[in-house]
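To assess whether the prediction recovers the assembly geometry, we first specified each molecular entity separately, as shown.
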Amino acid sequence: MSDGTVVHALGLRGHDAHGALTGLDLSLPSGTVGCLVGGRSDGTSVLARMLAGSERPASGHLIVGGLPPWWSASTRARIGALLDEPELADVGTVRELLALARRLRGDSPERESWFEAIGASSLLRRPIGGLDRREVRTVGLALALSAPAPLLVVLHEPLADVVKADATVLREVLHRRASEGACVLVLTASAADAAALADDVATLKQGRVDRAVGAPDTDELAPGAEIELRVWTDKPRQVAAALAGETSVAALSFSASDDSVPVAVRSRELAASAKAVARVCLECGAELRAMQAVAPGGRAMHDAGGQSPRKAAP
Amino acid sequence: MSAASASFQAGTWLVLRRVGRRHAMGITAAAVAFAAIASYAERKAVVSDAASRALQGPGFGLALPIAAFAVLSCSLGRGRLEAGVSPAAALGAHRRLAALGALVGAAVVAAAIGALIACVTALAGHGPPSAASVSDALTSSWIGALTAACYTFYFGAGASFGAQGGGRVIALGLDLLIGPLATPVAVLFPRAHALNLLGRPEAVPGWSQAASTIGLVSLACFFALMAVRRTPD
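The predicted structure of the complete assembly is given in tokenized form:
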């Protein structure tokens, strides 16, 4: 597309057995390696299926390279996708499957240099029907990364449930694809995987792009970085007031008008802040209903207007 | 090789792998055993014209359409027609061509099973082999092959309806209910033409056997076209 936007989603809705998209707006430019952090219940698996053209959106618009992937075979041929549960065409052995992919997609090398590093080389002679889940996902990863002249490479949990999880090799291959003009999107529940693979990280929560950090903040997702703890209690005001004096708490917020909104506690040490929350609840006589640790938030990274995350204001 | 022919081949190859020897043998064994036992029972009840009754009743009435239905279900799985070829579509195959390839592959398998069902039914209905029974078995075989292929496309078109391709079950029910009725509407169902070819001209009033042969081929093409048209590319 003329403005460099490869993926354009507007009001995208759909669901699978694990989660749903509830009106996702997303624009992804070419030449970037982005990541959406979220679980399958947040809609990552169904988003991957929709982007791959394997799932028809229930409503909304999804365009990849100017055409909807569900309807366009030529677009799907230029999308490399690793789904949560890849459906491999059982045409015999892995080698025969790769040969079929080459015939359908056009020319591409028979054997990529990185096959060994991800453990795909050892699977070439294996029958598709005899592969276990890890091996199926490894073959799916090899197929996704070997798409010739890809418009989009979308990978769901590329470092989980695969034969060899080599983040360094994968990052290099992804960035090579991005430098060739592809838009690369990693969908993962792991902040560490996101930091290891992508330049730009956003969060996908309950089917929407929730909050994001840009490239400079990516390292903050690594273990030891600041984290947010959400606390559900029957006395949020008292708990927030008591937590304000805790040294382990960097910042906190709560809703003055709605007691059902959780108290958000920002801290550098998850364990220390959790202990502080528990102690404060005990002291206040508040009922501690639930605690949830989430990745740190920020501004929206990918907006529907097609703004590159790199260009977004800090 | 062009992407179009690769798509068609991918669909055919997928189906042949899915049906496989084990499923094909199982379906064939069950259908042939049922047809043979039913044919033998017809001959035991009334010797005269037992083969025709067995062919028109349990052979082409139950065993053959259900065998074709089973072959198609093994080929596509439980979902819609396009879901059956989704592994190839994910690699960039044209869904329509892959679906056509899948239906052609399934039709070839079903035709072979249909021919065998018809042959065994006729032979079991005639009793001790004779020149006449062998000739009847051979004639029944090609009718069985053509009818089974037509049924495959018919159920394939049905599989393009419904969230999970449940239209194929409705198609089976309609054929069972309306197909045997000697009404103008029956012309739209494979069963009526098969019955005409097996010697029951009242199944399709006013149609010759040659016309019913063309009718079966035309229905197969029509349902194939409908299935492909209803599949997103």
